[in-house]
Structures are given as C-alpha cells and as structure tokens.
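Methods — Computational structure assignment.
A single polypeptide chain was analysed. Its primary sequence is given first, followed by the predicted tertiary structure written as structure tokens.
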Amino acid sequence: MGLAAFLLLGSAKPSFLAEDEALVINKIKIEITGTSTVGKYNCSNIFTAKDTVYVNSLKKDIFNTAIKMSNFDCGNKIMTKDLQGTVKVKQFPNSTVCITDVKSCGKNYKCRLNFYITDKTLKYKDFILYNSDDKIQGTLNLKFSEIGLEPPVKMAGLIKVKDDIVINFSLYKG
C-alpha cells in the first residue's frame, strides 16, 4: 500500500510549479516617442517576426530579435533622417531586444529584458509585459544621454529635442 502511494505521488508534478504557456508571436511594433520645442514626435517600425515565447518554462524561454533601425518611420522624411542620424544608423544598423525568464505575474508577465542599442546594453531584471487579447507590450522610459546619444538640435537651436524618450514595444500574438 505504501509503495503504491509512493509511486503515485512520486510521478505527480509538484503543484507549486505553474504550467508552461506558449505565446506565439507573429508581428512586432516598436515606437519611439518624445517631445521637442515644436511638439511631440512618434517614430515607429512594424515588422514580421515569428517566434514562440514560453512562460514559466525551463525549456526555451528566450525571445531575441534584431530591429533594423533604418526601417523606422517618423511620418516626415526630415524627422526620419534626423532619428537615423541620432541613433547612428550607419554605424549601428540594428538594435536587439532579448527577453528571457518570462513568468506569469497576475494576468501580465514579468521577465528579464536586455535592450541593445548603439553600443550600449540596458538590462532590466523584473520588466513587466502587459497582456491583452492580441498582444503583450512593454514600455521603456529612457534618456538619449543614457545610451550615449545627443538629442538633435536644428535651425541654430530653435528646434531642440528633449532628452527624455519613451520606447513602446508590442509583441502581437498569432
């Protein structure tokens, strides 16, 4: 009797471990927003990226994607060119987002996020990804100066971009 109970309980999964969950990603949208002396700006890059993010998993739990910096569009050719010059697109054509160790956190997720832009890597240990029906999304509040960049200044200083930027990224579920 004791042996039967041991075999039954020994083969059971521990109840404190959450079940693996797979999030299939099929599209990514990155937005860079900020303000200047003439108003707000919004530059975005939308691209297809098929991958699977495993939640609460010891298996494959790495989502890693390159972001082509020349594909950002600010809705205005001059602003797009300024952004590309600011992020040194010729010297650093790609940025990289790497998400690992994704765990459930209520209805959202907590993860480790490494964001590589220019020659800097920004690391976040408990980064929150907000969950909705069609996507998971996160927001980084940065300063150009944190990543070794200077905000653009145009027309002899009449137009100045503020140092603060917000990077929103959305991983669309498929």
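Note: Confidence is low (pLDDT under 50) at residues 1-17.
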